[in-house]
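Methods — Computational structure assignment.
A single polypeptide chain was analysed. Its primary sequence is given first, followed by the predicted tertiary structure written as structure tokens.
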Amino acid sequence: RGSPPHPYAAAVVLDAGDALEIGAAVAGIRWYVAVRGGIDVAPVLGSRATDLLSRVGPAPIAVGDVLPVGSAPARPVPPVDSLAVSAPAEGEVVLRATPGPRLDWFVDGSWAALLGHEWEVTAEADRVGVRLDGEPLERRIPGELPSEGVVTGALQVPPSGRPILFLADHPMTGGYPVIGVVARDDVRLAAQLRPGQRIRFV
């Protein structure tokens, strides 16, 4: 308590009874806190994370919960664990994308339209996905296709013509055509997008 603020992505030593206060994000919408030794809860399917959509994993954290921490390794923190990660992007964000498996469901020029237009992040954004607003993409084939597997970063287009970018907690299957897929390294940028922020695909 009473210690000066620490910079973004810093390693901090806390003693028993210390409190870590996390302020409001200046950019992005999510904070991540990693604990050396990990959170010591029973893994489900090899993971200790909670998937709210499928209700798989440990129970979501509630106010007043006490989380057990695993034993920290005796060795010092390795340098790779101390390297700062890039802060969430402010302003317009550029995401790399490649054509998806259902490009043929859209009229000619739709891929160029996706890349050529600016898209705005709507308030309908969470860990499942980000719904975008902009000039609707026109489909050649109406309706839905049989549900098929989708990957993180997929750009699924519902009948509205406005893409949905799938993030970490996306469903395993989807029935709308996928026009493109965002590069895996760029999905982390998309996960921090705020409503009203604008993006472009390249």
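Note: Helices lie at 79-82, 110-116, 184-190.
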